[in-house]
């Protein structure tokens, strides 16, 4: 069964569209289970009805015509119960629903399993048999459940592809197709998708028609000739080193490149109006599909050769194509994995948004995007990237969503958000030089999280009182080697000078987890619980010592440096780090540098540290909570994984209780405590943190004016009462709603992200 399943998944994965994928499923499952009927019913999101989309055994004319209401019949029962239903005599079941146009009255045995993807029921997979005496056994039921689970992602991907193309299952036009990911940089962008794909990856080639048929033919013929010459050149160079049977492999490649083989079929596709890269993709995938289905092991192995040949041809086709990529006025860059180099290709002023399938909110590109103020969504699952080229897109960097084919109402809704954000920022500029204090005189320092010089001007113009978190790994990320002491010193000096005399808190190198250096790879099964942060630098004191030395020398004459240690989980790590820092301090002083010993603090981001606050505070000058990682570790949720993103919530009662305890314990021993993370930049979160007693809040520059405006407009007692009220609640969503309601009632609803409405509600808003 395992080999059948593997073969089935491979074949379905290479299907050209959803209909072909479903036809493959019903045909192969019927044969594998030796049953008379196999059918797939898919749930149409537009009508909320199950539609018969493919069948082997029922009348073909009924495909696309037979539909059932959400809870109608046995199919609806399987979907609503979200579990298999196995019946020997289906017609006798009270929920049985008969459709004469299918001819299913002949079949009595019934086994249906739901097709579920990320908690969403996509449809139902059904097998039926004529004899009432046959009951599908446990093994057959388990096989069908396995098939369903394996194919759910494929069906979701194909369904999304069709929806993006503007068609529902019934062939009706669709709009407002949404995909969920991880927020990379806040804001909203409306523009045109431009897909940039890694070189020579056939799977990511966009589907595009062409009217320049002769031009595409010429490009393809040139690529074929170039690959032929490459292969002949390599074959000639290696001729003396290879045996005849090994040399024959090059002949296999050359035969596949003859006009009557693969190139001939690609030419035919191009003549049908498909651009060369898309035609090559279709033909190569068709070849792969056919060879993988063959029983002969030698022929199955030829799939590797076909893939390699396809990549070689595609590489030549792409050489000139990327250089001539056209960027519209409002470009939303889309890629499987966006790189900093891709950002540099877009003409200045035309990049409005980013969509990256891979990556996280902490990736280098996300940090760059936040510095540039470009709304970004990352970590999307099951998104057909190649369908987004040239389409109008909306990027919601607040919620981590993108929309394709937006309706006029949805577009107007998001345009209003863009306009409101711009107007709000302009209106808050007057607050830049005013202190952040409550109406009853309680002062809170507002700091900025940064890692790039491009952040500096925006941070200062928004009223930042210093840097609460300088990510020193950024200079390491933009190099292809460890930066030298002098290079680091120059980076650090720029930041220290820009904010002097205000404090600049530099976190020592924090790599590992989802922050990797290409020249220092860390391969681990569970990187977030592995070798990261202070664990890496204490194991490599040569890295730590050079970095601290560069920081200290950069601070000469300014003396506004603070050093912060990441991922501390026990006291010994602090003591070992302090020993190294004091050693470097004395060495640098002996070299003649006139420097002061900087304040040293620790980041509280591991649950173990929450219960050692007093012990940690006795050894350092300050504490700073990394609320993003602390929330992640407390809830055991990878915040960059869209599959579990709904479980990550900064307002979770456990998170709030931990934050209260940290502030109380730090102050009990007389040490200041700050926080850097997304919660500090949220107006509601900032109010709760201020009420808890946090001395400083560090956030992205864009959040500073809103947070300052809210804090300056309330008294601390009001915030303390709000905190006491929400600490009695047990649901993060209820807590967030209560905080938002309190802010709205206080007159600050304009600072909250508007909640997306249904199309009906949007229409009502437009009318009113």
TrEMBL record:
Its EC number is 2.7.3.9. Its main location: cytoplasm. It is an enzyme of class 2 (transferase). InterPro entries: GAF (IPR003018), GAF-like_dom_sf (IPR029016), PEP-util_enz_mobile_dom (IPR008279), PEP-utilizing_PTS_enzyme (IPR050499), PEP_util_C (IPR000121), PEP_util_CS (IPR023151), Phosphohistidine_dom_sf (IPR036637), PTS_EI-like (IPR006318). It holds the Pfam family PEP-utilisers_N. It is found in: Cytoplasm. GO terms for biological process: phosphoenolpyruvate-dependent sugar phosphotransferase system. Its cofactor is Mg(2+). It comes from the Bacteria. Residues 17-165 form the GAF domain. Keywords: Cytoplasm, Kinase, Magnesium, Metal-binding, Phosphotransferase system, Pyruvate, Sugar transport, Transferase, Transport. GO terms for cellular component: cytoplasm. GO terms for molecular function: kinase activity; metal ion binding; phosphoenolpyruvate-protein phosphotransferase activity. It catalyses: L-histidyl-[protein] + phosphoenolpyruvate = N(pros)-phospho-L-histidyl-[protein] + pyruvate. Belongs to the PEP-utilizing enzyme family. This is phosphoenolpyruvate--protein phosphotransferase. The lineage of its organism: Bacteria, Pseudomonadati, Pseudomonadota, Gammaproteobacteria, Pseudomonadales. The gene is ptsP.
């Amino acid at each position: 069964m395992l080999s059948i399943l593997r073969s089935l998944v491979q074949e379905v994965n290479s299907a050209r569209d959803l209909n072909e994928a479903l036809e493959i499923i019903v045909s192969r499952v019927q044969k594998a289970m030796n049953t008379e009927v196999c059918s797939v019913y898919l749930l149409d999101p537009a009508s909320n009805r199950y539609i018969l989309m493919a069948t082997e055994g029922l009348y073909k004319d009924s495909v696309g015509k037979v539909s059932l209401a959400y809870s109608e019949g046995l199919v609806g029962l399987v979907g609503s119960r979200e579990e298999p239903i196995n019946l020997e005599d289906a017609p006798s079941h009270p929920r049985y629903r008969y459709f004469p146009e299918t001819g299913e009255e002949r079949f009595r045995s019934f086994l249906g399993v739901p097709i579920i993807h990320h908690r969403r029921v996509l449809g139902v997979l059904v097998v039926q048999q004529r004899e009432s005496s046959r009951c599908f056994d446990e093994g057959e039921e388990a096989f069908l459940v396995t098939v369903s689970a394996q194919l759910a992602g494929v069906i979701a991907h194909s369904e999304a592809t069709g929806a993006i193309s503007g068609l529902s299952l019934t062939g009706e036009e669709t709009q407002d197709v949404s995909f969920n990911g991880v927020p990379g940089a806040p804001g909203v962008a409306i523009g045109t998708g431009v897909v940039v794909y890694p070189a020579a990856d056939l799977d990511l080639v966009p589907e595009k028609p062409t009217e320049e048929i002769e031009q595409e033919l010429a490009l393809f013929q040139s690529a074929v000739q170039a690959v032929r010459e490459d292969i002949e050149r390599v074959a000639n160079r290696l001729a003396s080193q290879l045996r005849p049977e090994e040399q024959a492999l090059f002949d296999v490649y050359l035969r596949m490149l003859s006009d009557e083989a693969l190139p001939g079929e690609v030419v035919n596709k191009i003549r049908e109006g498909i651009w060369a890269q898309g035609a090559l993709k279709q033909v190569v995938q068709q070849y792969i599909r056919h060879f993988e289905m063959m029983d002969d092991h030698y022929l199955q192995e030829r799939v590797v050769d076909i893939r390699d040949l396809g990549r070689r041809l595609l590489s030549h086709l792409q050489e000139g194509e990327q250089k001539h990529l056209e960027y519209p006025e409002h470009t939303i860059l889309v890629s499987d994995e966006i790189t900093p180099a891709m950002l540099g290709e877009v003409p200045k002023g035309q990049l409005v948004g980013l969509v990256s399938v891979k990556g996280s909110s902490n990736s280098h590109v996300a940090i760059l995007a936040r510095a540039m103020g470009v709304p970004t969504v990352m970590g999307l699952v099951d998104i057909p990237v190649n369908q987004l080229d040239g389409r109008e897109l909306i990027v919601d960097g607040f919620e981590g969503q993108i929309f394709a084919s937006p309706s006029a109402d949805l577009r107007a809704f998001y345009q209003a958000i863009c306009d409101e954000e711009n107007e709000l920022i302009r209106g808050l500029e007057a607050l830049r030089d005013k202190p952040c204090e409550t109406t009853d005189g309680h002062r809170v320092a507002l700091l900025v999280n940064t890692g790039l010089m491009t952040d500096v001007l925006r941070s200062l113009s928004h009223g930042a009182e210093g840097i609460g978190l300088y990510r020193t790994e950024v200079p390491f990320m933009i190099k292809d080697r460890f930066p030298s002491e002098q290079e680091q010193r120059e980076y650090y000096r720029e930041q220290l000078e820009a904010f002097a005399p205000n404090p600049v808190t530099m976190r020592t190198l924090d790599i590992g987890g989802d922050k990797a250096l290409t020249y220092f790879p860390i391969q681990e099964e569970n990187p977030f619980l592995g070798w990261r942060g202070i664990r890496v630098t204490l194991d490599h004191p040569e890295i730590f010592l050079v970095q601290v030395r560069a920081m200290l020398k950069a601070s000469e004459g300014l003396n506004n440096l603070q050093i912060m240690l990441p991922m501390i989980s026990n006291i010994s790590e602090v003591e070992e780090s302090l020993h190294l820092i004091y050693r470097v301090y004395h060495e640098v002083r002996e070299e003649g540098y006139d420097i002061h010993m900087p304040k040293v603090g620790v980041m509280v981001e591991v649950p173990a540290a929450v219960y050692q606050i007093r012990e940690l505070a006795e050894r350092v000058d300050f504490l700073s909570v990394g609320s993003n990682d602390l929330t992640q570790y407390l809830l055991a949720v990878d915040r960059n994984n869209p599959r579990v993103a709904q479980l990550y919530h900064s307002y979770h009662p456990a998170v709030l209780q931990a934050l209260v305890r940290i502030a109380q314990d730090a102050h009990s021993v007389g040490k200041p405590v700050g926080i850097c993370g997304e919660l500090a930049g949220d107006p509601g979160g900032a109010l709760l943190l201020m009420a808890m007693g946090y001395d400083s809040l560090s956030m992205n520059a864009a959040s500073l004016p809103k947070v300052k405006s809210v804090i300056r407009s309330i008294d601390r007692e009001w915030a303390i009462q709000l905190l006491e009220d929400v600490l009695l609640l047990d649901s993060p969503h209820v807590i967030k709603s209560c905080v938002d309601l309190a802010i709205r009632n206080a007159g600050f609803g304009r600072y909250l992200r508007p909640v997306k409405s249904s199309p009906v509600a949007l229409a009502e808003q437009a009318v009113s």
